[in-house]
Amino acid sequence: MTMLSSPEKLECARKDIVSRIDPTKPCISVCAGAGCLASGAAEVIAAFKTELEFHGLTTEVNTKGTGCPGFCERGPIVMIYPEEICYLRVKPEDVAEIVSHTIKEKKLVDRLLYVDPATGEKATRESDIPFYKNQQRNILSENLRIDSKSIDDYLAIGGYSALSKALFQMSPEEVMGEVKKSNLRGRGGGGFPAWRKWEESRNAPDPIKYVIVNADEGDPGAFMDRALIEGNPHSILEGLIIGAYAVGAHEGFIYVRQEYPLAVININLAIRQAGERGLLGKNILGSGFDFTVKVHMGAGAFVCGESSALMTALEGRAGEPRPKYIHTAVKGVWDHPSVLNNVETWANVTQIISKGADWFTQFGTKGSTGTKIFSLVGKITNTGLVEVPMGVTLRDIIEKVGGGIPGGKQFKAVQTGGPSGGCIPEAQLDLPVDFDELTKAGSMMGSGGMIVMDEDTCMVDIARYFLDFLKDESCGKCTPCREGIRQMLKVLTNITTGKGKEGDVELLEELAESTGAALCALGKSAPNPVLSTIRYFREEYEAHIRQKKCPALSCKELIAFHIDPDKCKACGTCFRQCPAEAIDGGKKRIHVIDQEKCTKCGTCFDVCPPRFGAVRKISGEPVPAPIPEEQRAMA
Amino acid sequence: MDIAKIDQIIENHNGEESSLIQILLDIQSEYHWLPKEALARVGERLQVPMSRIQQIASFYKAFSLVPKGRHEVHVCVGTACHVRGAQRVLDTVQDITGIGPGETDAELKFSVETVNCLGCCALGPVMEVDGKHHGNIAPSQIASVLNNCE
């Protein structure tokens, strides 16, 4: 391993790596992100290796596990280069055919290609698939060009050239200036301008300073930071070193959730590789600048995503937030100035330095520059990671990229900003997505979770769900948060279980106001899910309270299952599968649900063949009396 | 329990007090819980009072102060899984195992936990048994998965 002791040596090493790459040599890239691994990508990679060996092709064909390209819905994803063929939902059984057809005979395996649901047309390349076509993937696109465990791959696509540029062609002030000009705002939650934290830290007199990557991605339903750290760890590291240089820090931390084991492995590996090449440690690239970095695993506490709590956790203590009258940028870890930015923010820093602030600001809006990665999940056709310029509308994201709602259902709301965010209804779908517009709509950008809900989602239950989450995650330090969340949850649970009463909505609004008196953003924003659902879906609250009816037919205590005697064909499917043995049936006998025994698990509803559709949910009205015994026999 | 192993874990972190959480995480991943003797050893070596260790062990979700079952069942209750019916999955798991989230059965066969997001939302609702993901799982399929556990 050669130490890269000057920018020239870095460029030489890069040239050497690039010269060894044969662009015509076939390469099979399989997404090895956590989503695809969960759907069997590791088995697919293993199958390719065995199959290539069997055909004696191991030296002629490369295989690599890449980072997540984002199309999780259709994983495991396989890309074949140089033709850039994109195969979706590949199973180990498909591997033999891919090798014999595509690799050896250069033919396509049609059934693994993307089929446009509207036109029925097949797409061979990734760029032809609407999900990708409608994105602006400045950051995510690098993920699938590299093997996430290889520093050579990162160097081959220009990696660490931004660092070299910053160290040798720019002063720390110039780096700061470029970031300021780009108006990069923090991608982790609040959208605070990154340069302001940097400047504050840089100007603080304390000579010991820290820079920190916040990869404690705790928002349920958000996984873009994980995809970046797993898929392209060097880009985060490079951004961090550049930031350290600008701020004047010589030590850094990367705080990763322990729930992301692959991210922990890949970032540790990247740190080791960078150290071996002289890109980390003493005298980086011969510039005289020293910087070391340590990985700290989070032990499972949502509140640790908050800056001051995270810093307390770094010190080895229980992660409770503290008042920030003095910013953490001035007094952070062990009271030293500490700049904390989110994973995606650091990844953007690398690109801003490498391509310039002017390049960066051509994307996005005036107040919110650049692109943003969202994790588009829930009731959406194309679940996955989506990178779009700031300012596109929610409708474009959901319909053009996300492919709309599956199963012919009606869109109801989209929840952004995680547990601190809010729900945005259909009427506001033309809202441009940027930091300020989302806040105006009563939600927030947050880290970029976007959960789509359809007509089957109960909005009161969603508010209850988030408060239940926050009740567990509140650290308990401030009374308004600890008690306020608990009381709001109690009222919401009452409403969803049919015990709601007049005045509950007003009580929630009142409680929301006082919960906002908490210290940190967790408590302050905890009422958002409640307030935004009341604001846009008040009638659902009222239906639960007044008519004891759940309009979405979702709240268990407010619904009943009923078999329509006119539609039941006595097929026995529900009868056999009911785990509570609550269905009375038999050959040629119309089935009846015993409401006393029914646990409302919904199995009968799921298994009733759609051509009969005999099982229905009822809410807010009495269950029809069971059909008399003598009428149950079928002809 | 092997005290030498605990010492080794502490050594790996240079016996630094600031690495307390990292040390406890390593012990947790080794034993799947935090045995009392291990905590006593950590306190002694790091010169940290037991009260602080207890505070950390109870504050962070990753730690368990009681032994875990042979099979760890994690039901994802992240938002994406929630809107796709995670509650029904959890109800069914509870019915079959007889234990709720955070509990371990008397035979130490199962431990059930809810997790806030496994990050594979495309597969929701997701249940994870001993590290293996079961995606798009219907309540009716859960019994056969759990019955395969010895």
- Overall number of domains of chain A: 5
CATH class of the largest domain in chain B: Alpha Beta
Looking across the biggest beta sheet of chain B, what order are the strands in?
2-3-1-4-5
Write the CATH architecture name of the largest domain in chain A: 3-Layer(aba) Sandwich
Helix content of chain A: 25-40%
CATH superfamily of the largest domain in chain A: NADH-ubiquinone oxidoreductase 51kDa subunit
CATH topology descriptor of the largest domain in chain B: Glutaredoxin
Mean pLDDT of chain B: 91
Features:
heterodimer, A: about 625 residues, alpha/beta, Rossmann fold, 5 domains, 24 helices, globular, B: about 150 residues, alpha+beta, 2 domains, five-stranded mixed beta sheet, about 45% helix
Task: Give a brief description.
The complex is a heterodimer of chains A (635) and B (150). Chain A is α/β, with parallel strands linked by helices.
Give a structural overview.
The complex is a heterodimer of chains A (635) and B (150). Helices cover 38% and strands 14% of the residues of chain A. Chain A folds into five domains: 20-132, Glutaredoxin, CATH 3.40.30.10; 159-361, Rossmann fold; 371-454, Ubiquitin-like (UB roll); 459-546, NADH-ubiquinone oxidoreductase 51kDa subunit, iron-sulphur binding domain (de novo design (two linked rop proteins), Up-down Bundle), CATH 1.20.1440.230; 558-631, Alpha-Beta Plaits (2-Layer Sandwich), CATH 3.30.70.20. Chain A starts with 6 loop residues before the first helix and ends in a 16-residue tail after the last strand. In chain A, helix 7 (161-169) packs parallel to helix 11, helix 8 (172-182) crosses helix 11 (233-247) and helix 18 (459-473) runs antiparallel to helix 19 (479-496). Chain A has a five-stranded mixed sheet. By secondary structure, chain A is an alpha/beta fold. Chain B is an alpha+beta fold. Chain B has two domains: 3-59, no CATH class; 71-147, Glutaredoxin (3-Layer(aba) Sandwich), CATH 3.40.30. Chain B has seven helices and five strands; from the N terminus they run ααααβααββββα. Chain B has helices at 3-12, 20-31, 36-46, 50-59, 79-83, 86-97, 139-147, and strands at 71-76, 103-104, 110-115, 127-129, 132-134. The model of chain B has no long low-confidence stretch (mean pLDDT 91). Chains A and B meet through helix 2, strand 9, strand 11, strand 15 and helix 18 of A and helix 2, helix 4, helix 5 and helix 6 of B.
